Amino acid sequence: MTPEQMEQRIVRYGDLQPCKTAFIDAHTPGSDRKENFTIIGGGVSESPDQHVHLRETPGFNIGAAGQPPNCRNSLHSHHSAEVFFVLKGRWRFFWGRWGTAGEFIAEEGDIFNIPTGIFRAFENVGTDYGMIMAILGGDDAGGGVVWAPQVITDAKDYGLVLGENGRLYDSKKGQSLPEGMQPMPLLDDDQLQSFPEPTTAEVIPNCVARYWDLMALSDRQPAKVIGAEGILRDRPGFDVEFLSRNSIPDTPYALDRHEVLMPMRGHWRLTWAGGTTTLNPGDTAAIPPGLEHALAPSMTGEASLYRVMNTQDPAGATGRLL
């Protein structure tokens, strides 16, 4: 593989292209300044304006959300796995029908394996622009987003309507629902009863791993974060590992499955038979199966990285029990 071919498989943080109208709450005050990024796969964006960096999926999707302080993503649910780690900033995650069932504050490097099938939301509670990286289960990311009814109702007052086809129509751009198209129906009371309301005490031990704990656990080998043998035992169609400076030797290795490298801290040197490059925080590199390569920090100081690999488990499924 030539350096040019490898570079085509790397999405650099500085090259990320945001969509500011990705979801139905894009004009709603408090949520109207957020940016959505689809890095690998089409993600769950509802906008035809969403830029997709790498369309080929390895059994999961990679995305990101960028938000200024006090900006939130509204309450929604997914049919499949959703995992976040905090790249920049300080974030509050909260969940439940009205967002009052539970919450916790995530610091930089923390990872959250959100329980499938609950309403969840998040907001930047830091002082600067923040970024969270997302892993979504399945090649089609579970088929989209399910919004809490009040989110859809509020959006109508600001010109956005979600069609039953899962696409947004913006009256501010002169758009309206196509003839014969109905708006996305609101969930009724019976449907809403099926969404769990776990408490903070139930969620955190099973679904959250803290950055500095992972740094300690990864001192001599990769820390298994999400997977059948992970700290957070789950089988969502992908495994997540955490690497720090002494986790792996800098000798070449190859895997028989897809590997996505996502640096958190420091600069990492990626070497293969065709060349070498440096991965920086916020970059995303898709390594194909069978490619022999080596990975090592390229400078002194703190270094950490999340590694995601596809599994044979049903895509997007979850074995987690609260």
From TrEMBL:
Residues 68-132 form the Cupin type-2 domain. Keywords: Isomerase. It comes from the Bacteria. It holds the Pfam family Cupin_2. GO terms for molecular function: isomerase activity. SUPFAM superfamilies: RmlC-like cupins. Transmembrane segments: none annotated. The keyword Isomerase applies. This is Cupin domain-containing protein. The lineage of its organism: Bacteria, Pseudomonadati, Pseudomonadota, Alphaproteobacteria, Rhodobacterales.
